[in-house]
Design a protein that fits this description.
- The protein is mainly α and 106 residues long.
- The chain has one domain (21-95).
- The protein contains 2 helices and 2 strands.
- The protein has a two-stranded antiparallel sheet with strand order 1-2.
- A hairpin with a 5-residue loop joins strand 1 and strand 2.
- The longest helix has 26 residues, at 70-95.
Length: 106
Amino acid sequence: MTDRRGVVAKRAEDLVPGVPYVRGWARARRSAGSLADQLVLLGLDSDFPSLVADVNVFGDGLVQLGTVRPEAADLLAQLITAGLDAEMDSKAAEAHPSSRHETPAA
């Protein structure tokens, strides 16, 4: 069974000609590297020791986080939520800028 993004598809262990495995893996590698950089900045890199790029049988890149402690997963979820909240607040502020009325100088 495969979901619409191919995440549940099996790993590519037996390669088939014509499938762009390297392209998918390279994209996953860049994304895994970006995530690893952020985890280092947050001091969470040791909580994700199995972070690795991979590719499935369709050539789609995958980033595997590996097994993590529940506390690390909770913290990652909180950080994602905080980032989304900040982004939504920023967009709301752009859509509805405060209308300050300036009083003329006397």
